[in-house]
TrEMBL record:
Highest taxon above the source species: Bacteria
Subunit annotation: Homotrimer.
GO BP annotation list: monoatomic ion transport
Keywords on record: Cell outer membrane, Ion transport, Membrane, Porin, Signal, Transmembrane, Transmembrane beta strand, Transport
Protein name per the record: Gram-negative porin
Organism lineage string: Bacteria, Pseudomonadati, Pseudomonadota, Betaproteobacteria, Burkholderiales
Lipid bilayer topology: Multi-pass membrane protein
Length: 430
């Protein structure tokens, strides 16, 4: 009798939701695997991807074998929903959290950097994923079939969405340079700007043309680093048949960002202005073959405001920085820090279950009065076998090469000119 009443209650709830045209969904991606990297500090169980295959490391750092989280897709869970308001209007929301699946911890990349401020112990990497319960997204929105949609809250930058679509390796955390790095893969200069707190994001489409505008509201006098900066970003896209183009551009002011090195405990919190753009294209050559390419240019310079950042900013995403790092303005004597990124690659679907993606990436860090020039190049490949639409097994490889006077400038220690990571993983979607 109790089971019958329970079943009746569940059916009644389902009927109510269906009648109200309301849906609420629990969803997620669980991605865990094994990887080998040639030069690295030990893996970190707070870091979203466990390892850092992007940044220059020391030649004398040994190889590491580790269980890794998020090799292909950052492990996450979330709740999303929408309600039909009638007349072509709807409301919607999303709450999305990031985790390191191996440890079960909420991902906190910023903490990994701060933990290495006094002495190197594990890998680290700055990010917009810094221990927030819903670090990946937290917003509500209103959509209209004619007038488009607007999101309010913590939203993903247009350039981050663009990277996920136009990266040959689909934003892979460990096997794509732009998938790993939020600075080049979504932040248009600074990784902290790949996801924007206290922001409004408007998007619409007319025919084959899409467009959008996004703004992060600033509290320039806040003691919290994530509240200080403002961001204005625009998006324009064209999609017709097998061909897609997209452009994004942004202007950010007074953004505090962690700077760090993997070969010495040199951690800083720099406040700067950035500007940048990203141009991308995608072409389906055949139903099985798709080519993706992009180019991006960013510039980092002195902040617009001349606040006393060293005394004003005391927290980084809720983490105290006292005794670890002092906030400073980007030095005007350095000159702008310009980074140009380009990539191209192809994906081929051999069968309905097996695909192979490959890409070439080139990131050129131009010289200024503070740092010499250096270039990161990488060749990446990923093979994926889908058991079902929810479960797949993948294997990835990235060969990275570092060159330029920066490597000599920063020695000792002797810096690695090459690094390689390869591994495999199991990904489950629900």
């Amino acid at each position: 009798m109790k089971k019958s009443l329970l079943a009746l209650a569940v059916m009644s709830m389902a009927t109510t939701f269906a009648h109200a045209d309301t849906t609420v969904q629990l969803y997620g991606i669980l991605d865990e695997g094994f990887a080998h990297i040639e030069h690295s500090l030990p893996a970190n169980d707070q870091f979203a991807f466990s390892l850092n295959p992007y940044n220059v490391t020391a030649q004398n750092q040994s190889s590491v074998n580790a269980l890794v989280s998020g090799g292909a897709s950052m492990s996450r869970w979330g709740i999303q929903g929408n309600e039909d308001l009638g007349g072509g209007m709807k409301t919607f929301f999303k709450l999305e959290s990031a985790m390191n699946l191996g440890s079960g911890q909420i991902a906190n990349n910023g903490q990994t950097v701060l933990n290495n401020a006094n002495s190197l112990s594990t890998i680290s990497g700055a990010a917009a994923i810094n221990g927030q319960l819903f670090s990946r997204a937290a917003y509500v929105g209103l959509g209209d079939a004619t007038w488009g949609s607007i999101e309010l809250g913590r939203t993903t930058a247009f350039s981050f969405d663009q990277t996920s679509e136009f990266d040959p390796l689909h934003g892979s955390g460990l096997y794509s340079l732009i998938g790993f790095s939020g600075a080049t893969g979504g932040g248009l200069g600074l990784t902290e700007n790949s996801r924007l707190d206290n922001s409004l994001k408007y998007e619409n489409k007319i025919g084959d043309v899409g467009f959008g505008l996004q703004y992060k509201i600033a509290n320039t006098n806040s003691s919290e680093a994530d509240d200080v900066g403002s961001v204005l970003e625009g998006m324009l896209s064209y999609k017709s048949g097998s061909f897609s183009l997209e452009a994004t551009a942004s202007q950010a002011k007074n953004t505090p960002a962690l700077s760090f090195k993997l070969f010495t405990n040199d951690v800083g919190l720099r406040v700067s202005d950035t500007s940048g753009y990203m141009l991308t294209a995608k072409f389906e050559v055949t139903p099985q073959s798709t080519v993706r390419a992009g180019i991006e240019r960013t510039s980092q310079s002195t902040p617009s405001s001349s606040n006393n950042w060293n005394t004003q900013i005391t927290n980084y995403y809720g983490m105290s920085i006292a005794g670890l790092v002092t906030a400073k303005a980007f030095d005007p004597t350095w000159g702008s820090a310009v980074v140009t990124t380009a990539w191209i690659g192809e994906g081929y679907q051999f069968t309905d279950k097996f695909t192979l993606d490959a890409g070439y990436y080139n990131i050129n860090n131009a010289a200024n009065n503070h740092n010499d020039q250096y270039t990161i190049q990488a060749l990446s490949m990923m093979a994926d076998y889908s058991f079902t639409k929810h479960t797949d097994l993948y294997a990835g490889l990235m060969l990275a090469h570092y060159s330029g006077e920066y490597l000599v400038q920063q020695s000792p220690p002797t810096l690695a000119t090459r690094n390689a990571i390869f591994g495999t993983g199991l990904r489950v979607r629900f």
